[in-house]
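User: quick one, fold this
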Amino acid sequence: MKKALIIITIALLSFSQIACSNNESNTTDESPTTIKESQEATEAATVEVTTEKETTTVPSPIGSDFGSLIPEGWKIFEKVEGEPVQVEGDLNKDGNTDIAAVIVKLDENSQAPQRSLLIAMGNSDNTYTLSVIGENAILGADEGGGMGGSF
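Assistant:
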């Protein structure tokens, strides 16, 4: 458990470093970002994030279970089949179980699909709130250098 918390802490620190450097570079970038929320009677609420480069539909920031927070077209990464790469713990010390997981984009055309870090904070009513999806926090299978992938 300590090892998992150390790994999560390192990942969060790495992500915050990446996010800070991205924020500095984005101050001169004038690319517009549009966020549009939608909800239909038969579907869960989603948030559509549009940047100059692409549009991604992500789940509503609050879900009844952790799985409902995973974006459409993504799944929890499994290094070994049946063993998802995720850890649980109380990251924000509020007494509720929080979850950090590596998610992978479902892309049949790619041998090394994109990986991201998803962190969700647990709520007292047994729901989860999406904290962050770190798109650049996890290396892809083809980005591990001479020693192979990061997993």
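User: anything notable?
Assistant: The chain has one helix and eleven strands.
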